[in-house]
Write a structure and sequence with these properties.
By secondary structure, the chain is an alpha/beta fold. It folds into two domains: 19-291, Aldolase class I (TIM Barrel, Alpha-Beta Barrel), CATH 3.20.20.70; 338-407, no CATH class. Helices cover 41% and strands 19% of the residues. The strands form three sheets. Strands 7-8-6-5-4-3-2-1-9 form a nine-stranded mixed β-sheet, with helices on both faces. Helix 3 (62-79) runs parallel beside helix 5 (103-117) and helix 9 (203-216) runs parallel beside helix 11. It is globular and about 55 Å long. It starts with 18 loop residues before the first helix and ends with a helix. 44% of the residues are buried.
Length: 408
């Protein structure tokens, strides 16, 4: 997982954590996130920590990144208990960036580095993101044999003019073809990731995209509304008046259409922006994030969380690699979450799940707001009477607002 840097304390050079953070390590869900910072081109809407070859200007390389990654993962295993006591990874998620640019061999080396440091649990879920245009039957076959169990393909849309606005390079049919290639290679779990609300996207464009998704026979779909992030090329185009801002009412209508189509085809929501065919198809790694688990985020700009301590790495690949090469942790900053911080994060994340949030997490004012949200049709009354806050269909459309009400 990557995010914008936060303010916080300076981490120790050896990467060690406060003693209390290590209590319970291995008893909570534990995953490894690997951030691949490389992209062939920069998409106009993206504000992730990624770099094209021109932006690196010789300051980073695949080989140097892989070597540094191995060093950080070994450091992580030492910090979390050493060979005898470090938790095995129950989930691994390789994201970016464009992990598929590493090729099958490079992705296999990434997984080997996780095995050699933390090790993998017997039933580990191992996911890689992939851009459709940088995949092939050979890549899927190689990574399936290497131990990957899940592929998440960045489809975004099946409409050519929408892909152009997003600066995506693949053709409209390539994502569906890639999903078929992944399934043919033996992947039971394949996800297609969508973005809706792109300027110029029509309802028919979204219907065409959903028809394509259903034709692919995947067992998981993620769908996120377009967010215009400051500092991106898309934000500059919107500011100049070249493109309109996404309309909130249109986004809500699009979400309802997505949910109706996917639900009608057997893909049920389990998190506000995620649908799966059954329990096994759900992304266990992301569930670990949403349910307060531990994870070690390795790679430039990656974020980690263990036992209420969150930290984030140096962002530029060359500096990240040089710091690890000198024997120091690449962590740039960290914060120790208070009990109130952790309670608020539980409300923010668990409320988005179909299982909802235990009502006991709320303070008195929050509980009063929860009952008012029932009256407003945003939370399910029968579930709140049973002790859980669960969003209604309308509540999902207004999930962020419900969160703000419950945390005051």
């Amino acid at each position: 997982m990557t995010a914008q840097p936060l303010t916080g304390e300076t981490p120790p050079a050896d990467g060690s954590l406060p003693e209390g953070a290590l209590e319970g390590v291995g008893k909570r869900p534990f995953g490894v996130y690997v951030h691949v910072p490389f992209c062939a081109t920069r998409c106009g809407y993206c504000d992730f920590n990624t770099y094209t070859a021109d932006e690196l200007d010789g300051g980073g390389s695949l080989g140097g990144w892989l070597e540094a990654l191995g060093r950080e993962l070994r450091l992580g295993a030492r910090v979390l208990g050493g060979p005898e006591h470090a938790p095995r990874a129950e989930t691994v998620f390789v994201g970016g960036g464009t992990p598929s640019l590493l090729g099958g061999t490079g992705l296999a080396e990434v997984l080997d580095a996780v095995r050699d440091s933390f090790g993998l649990s017997a039933d580990a879920e191992v996911t890689t993101e992939a851009n459709p245009e940088s995949t092939s039957p050979e890549l899927f076959d190689t990574i399936r044999r290497a131990g990957y169990t899940r592929v998440s393909l960045g489809m975004q849309s099946a409409a050519e003019h929408v892909l152009r606005v997003l600066d995506r390079r693949h053709t409209p049919g390539r994502a569906v073809a890639a999903a078929g290639e992944a399934r043919a290679a033996g992947f039971e779990h394949v996800s297609l990731d969508l973005i809706y609300g792109t300027p110029g996207e029509r309802t028919q464009d979204l219907r065409t995209t959903l028809d394509a998704v259903l034709s692919a026979g995947v067992d998981h779909v993620s769908a996120y509304s377009l967010i215009v992030e400051e500092g991106t090329a898309l934000a500059r185009r919107v500011r100049r008046g070249e493109l309109p801002m996404p309309d909130e009412d249109v986004l809500a209508a699009n979400y309802e259409l997505i949910d109706n189509v996917l639900s009608g085809s057997g893909l049920r929501w389990y998190e506000v922006s995620n649908w799966a065919s059954d329990e096994r198809a759900r992304c266990r790694h992301n569930i670990g994030y949403w349910s307060g688990g531990d994870w070690w985020g390795a790679g430039p700009g990656a974020h980690s969380h263990v036992g209420g301590v969150r930290w984030w790495n140096l962002k530029f690949p060359a500096r990240y690699a040089a710091t690890l090469g000198s024997g120091s942790s690449p962590a740039a900053g960290r914060e120790v979450l208070t009990e109130e911080d952790r309670r608020i994060e539980r409300v923010m994340l668990e409320l988005r799940l179909d299982s909802g949030l235990p009502a006991e997490v709320l303070d008195r004012g929050g509980l009063d707001e929860a009952w008012q949200a029932v009256e407003d049709g945003l939370l399910r009354g029968e579930r709140l009477r049973a002790g859980r806050c669960v969003l209604t269909d309308r509540g999902r459309l207004l999930a962020d607002g419900v969160v703000r009400r419950l945390i005051g």
